[in-house]
TrEMBL record:
InterPro entries: GHMP_kinase_C_sf, Mev_decarb, Mev_diP_decarb, MVD-like_N, Mvd1_C, Ribosomal_Su5_D2-typ_SF, Ribsml_uS5_D2-typ_fold_subgr. This is Diphosphomevalonate decarboxylase. Pathway: Steroid biosynthesis; cholesterol biosynthesis. Residues 201-386 form the Mvd1 C-terminal domain. Catalyzes the ATP dependent decarboxylation of (R)-5-diphosphomevalonate to form isopentenyl diphosphate (IPP). Functions in the mevalonate (MVA) pathway leading to isopentenyl diphosphate (IPP), a key precursor for the biosynthesis of isoprenoids and sterol synthesis. It is an enzyme of class 4 (lyase). The lineage of its organism: Eukaryota, Metazoa, Chordata, Craniata, Vertebrata. It comes from the Eukaryota.
Length: 404
């Protein structure tokens, strides 16, 4: 019915949301830059959209004169090659479906131009996988608009490699694949978001600034110059993937946490092994790493595990019963200078009184204001369609709405 009505209305519009994902076995390096095919498989956790998400609205109309895109309210170049690749691929699939005589194939005119508005509720290009959520959202919204179903993670991968993992919820593997055309380089769910109810994620936001070396350029440089990266892709990652999937299936936090930290460290070692070297971690990132190890040593087991993508923000995995204590440790180590009441955002965090011996063993010289805020979240589902028309980012004229 939605599809049938689309032709009668001057404007067809769909809104979707999509999640950020954080890799625990990292993807770094492409074997094909155009198709975005990775040199190794990877594994990630999809974060809950209540805390971190991209929202995208797509509209098509015979009245539109050009394809247009707005990101966080600013119009951007719609001719970006990766953007084009996603748009063309979804339109191709829609055409194929229609030619195949699908009963409910959307009668939308595929030659109509499209308007897209997208917003993130977190800093863009700060090492929080904004491109993953962004392209997963774009592909989802276009697929809904054009009535395309089936394997869409391959399409999202054409926009941003890690976007294919944001097409699914919970724990997700992106399979490297073997085919040169990339048809088998897709995402698969290892376990749903409900599989490990106690798992929590704390994002320690230290900087919302744009990174100095983008992921795309950094990867290419590493592939060209790092012998460690080659060894990692061929020898280390295959073993770690199998092990990580077992830890997740068994909900073994000790194993999961240790391997997460080891893999993060090795990824950043390949950045250092790149020539000239790439530094995504800063002094504060290293402070947080040391803090996590002191915290675990004090408890005699792995209570918290850090991982860092291509940026300085720390992502901490822990279990629900550890959150309050570790958040208090972070608050004592990096006392908020201005936003004490807003320092912890997202899921509620209980209060914790820290024993003297823990304070003495774990909290060193405090660095006030170094952590801007902590975002508390948990694993969540893949892309969702928004049925509420008031949530559309585009108005009836197909232009961005003024957002309060």
């Amino acid at each position: 019915l939605r599809s049938a009505m689309a032709e009668e209305r001057p404007l067809a519009m769909v809104t979707c949301t999509a999640p950020v994902n954080i890799a625990v076995i990292k993807y770094w390096g492409k074997r094909d830059n155009d198709l975005i095919l990775p040199i190794n498989s990877s594994l990630s956790v999809t974060l809950h959209q209540d805390q971190l998400k991209t929202t995208t609205t797509a509209a098509t109309s015979r009245d539109f004169t050009a394809d247009r895109l707005w990101l966080n309210g600013e119009e951007v170049d719609v001719e970006h090659p990766r953007l084009r690749a996603c748009l063309q691929e979804v339109r191709r699939l829609a055409r194929k479906r229609r030619d195949g005589g699908a009963e409910d194939a959307a009668p939308l005119n595929l030659s109509y131009k499209i308007h897209v508005a997208t917003e993130n509720n977190f800093p863009t290009a700060a090492g929080l996988a904004s491109s993953a959520a962004g392209y997963a959202c774009l592909v989802s919204v276009l697929a809904w608009l054009y009535g395309v179903e089936g394997e869409l993670s391959e399409v999202a991968r054409r926009g941003s490699g890690s976007a294919c993992r944001s097409m699914l919820g919970g724990f997700v593997q992106w399979q490297r694949g073997e085919r040169p055309d990339g048809r088998d380089s897709i995402a698969q769910q290892v376990a749903p978001e409900t599989h490990w109810p106690e798992l929590r994620i704390l994002v320690l936001v230290v900087s919302g600034e744009k990174k100095q070396v983008g992921s795309t350029a950094g990867m290419q440089s590493s592939v060209d110059t790092s012998p460690l990266l080659k060894h990692r892709a061929e020898v280390v990652v295959p073993e770690r993937l199998a092990l990580m999937m077992r830890h997740i299936r068994e909900r073994d936090f000790e194993g999961f946490g240790q391997l997460t930290m080891q893999d993060s460290n090795q990824f950043h070692a390949t950045c250092l092994d790149t020539f000239p070297p790439i530094f995504y971690l800063n002094d504060l990132s290293r402070h947080i790493i040391a803090l996590a190890h002191r915290f675990n040593a004090h408890h005699g087991c792995t209570k918290v595990a850090y991982t860092f993508d291509a940026g300085p923000n720390a992502v901490i995995f822990t279990l629900a019963d550890t959150v309050a204590e570790f958040v208090e440790v972070v608050r004592c180590s990096f006392p908020p200078t201005t936003n004490g009441d807003q320092f912890v955002q997202g899921l509620p965090v209980g209060s914790a009184a820290l024993p003297e011996e823990l304070l003495a063993a774990v909290v060193m010289e405090p660095v006030p204001g170094a952590v801007r805020y902590i975002l508390h979240t948990k694993p969540g589902p893949g892309p969702q369609v928004v049925d509420e028309p008031s949530q559309h980012l585009l108005g009836a004229d197909g232009l961005p709405r003024c957002r309060a």
